[in-house]
Specification:
This protein has 86 residues and is mainly α. The chain contains five helices and no strands.
């Protein structure tokens, strides 16, 4: 229940993203693409309510992160999230 509350509260607005640097948002976006890839999800076979809540939250945040990162020049990142396949 606590985890669910944290996920819901951190996804309501961009306050989390506004508190960190754009390079950190890009890093989260890159990690999110990895975690959301079918190859990874099938390999680890995560199941249960907590994982489904996490992946739902991550999918929503991933959209925000991609939008934020796409407004920046890709040259400022080592690996721009927008350059990676979904």
């Amino acid at each position: 229940m606590f985890f669910k509350m944290i996920l819901q509260n951190s996804g309501k607005d961009n306050s989390f993203e506004n508190d960190i640097e754009i390079k950190q948002v890009n890093s989260l976006c890159v990690m999110g693409k990895f975690l959301l890839s079918e190859k990874y999800k099938n390999a680890v076979n995560l199941q249960g309510e907590v994982y489904s809540e996490f992946y739902e939250w991550l999918s929503k945040k991933q959209l925000k992160w991609k939008e934020i990162v796409s407004k920046e020049s890709p040259r400022i990142f080592d690996v721009p999230c927008t350059a990676l396949k979904d």
